Amino acid sequence: MEEGAPADASSLIYLAKADAFPALAPVVGSLLAPPEVWFEAVEEGERIGAPEVPRIHEARELGLLDRVSLDASERRQGDRLREQGLGRDECEVLAIGARTQTVVIDEGRGSRIARARGLEPISTLQLVVVAFRRGSLDARRAHELARELAGVMNVTAEVFTAIGRRLSDEW
Known about the structure:
Elements: E1 5-6, H1 9-17, H2 21-24, E2 31-33, H3 35-48, H4 53-61, E3 65-67, H5 72-82, H6 88-96, E4 102-104, H7 108-116, E5 120-122, H8 124-133, H9 139-153, H10 157-170
Parallel strand pairs: 1-2, 2-3, 4-5
Helix pairs in contact: 1-3, 1-4, 3-6, 5-6, 8-9, 8-10, 9-10
């Protein structure tokens, strides 16, 4: 089984915007970026001048993010998943998820399909809770990161309150 967890493009972008790679990527070992994730988060980001792209490159240089390829079987699985209306990056994340049994994915349908495939989906915001529970973050830093991520993710007040409650319950 490979060390790390595949992450969708949105997760990489959110982590970069919140400057949260160093604190949160180690929660899953490292984040894995299949080709479509890299294309969407980095190559398309460079094309439009997205300011978070250098942080994604930095995460890779620090060993917090690895680019990975799909084998032929995984490519076929990804193609079949496209029929369920998912984006190409989510399809690749789910296809290689069997390597690690965990995926970092923020798309709701993708999370449901991950569960149906026996994978553990973790949202980008949930990484904060997991890091806090494991002792990687103290309560103050966990709340700061949750607030930062919530801001860049445009989550609802209800979702942010639920995450804050989960952090406070563990306090």
